[in-house]
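Explain my protein.
***
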Amino acid sequence: MFDLSNKTALVTGAGQNVGAGVARTLASQGAHVVVNDVAASRAAIVADEIAAADGSAEPLPFDVTDGDAVREAIAGRAIDILVNNAGNAGAEAMAVKPFAQTEPSDWVGPLAVNLEGVMNCTHAVLPGMIEQGWGRIIGVVSGAGTVGVNIGVAAYSAGKGGAAGLLRSVALEVAPTGVTVNSIALGLMSNTAGGDITEQLARAIPTRRLGTPEDAAALCAYLASEEASWMTAQTIPLAGGAITS
């Protein structure tokens, strides 16, 4: 079940955290994984880790916000599975503050990577998937973009919410072609906190723990599989019960 042998998966932002977990899991299910990251060194490390575990992987560094770079990197490649994972504020640190205190320059990074990056990568792989009559596109979005959060990341929320909406519409456009498109709305993840705050955050989650890369990766493996052929146009909450719609 969930056998991905003979499939090629491109995972963006896979040099660390959730993306790295997804890349490792898809490789363990038999996929050849193209490990993308804006930092070449991170992509290479994860690809080497997968190879050391007898998986198949190669690094492919590029910036998802650069449409020309995306098209150049993907040109000539047959991508069966795309996991749009690159996010946060891209190569820059995300400014965390109330929206009223932000400047338009603060919105650029979060919108570029979380929305435009998804548009660039999806647009680049979609024609090949349609032509071959099979494909899986998965967006790693966030509860911040589906139900909202009061933690000073409104532009990030806008980008994630926009990506979820984009992918639902694309899913309906391509539904008859054998290509499915879904999103995973993640809750609070273990890489987003540290120290004493981790326990405090976990107590607010019904399952009493933060999410892990492996949690996200397991759902990605299902959505990437043949068994998920009737699952499309969905934004699926994965948040230990903290997101219910």
Observations:
- The two ends are 28 Å apart (CA to CA).
- Residues 16 and 42 are 7 Å apart (CA to CA).
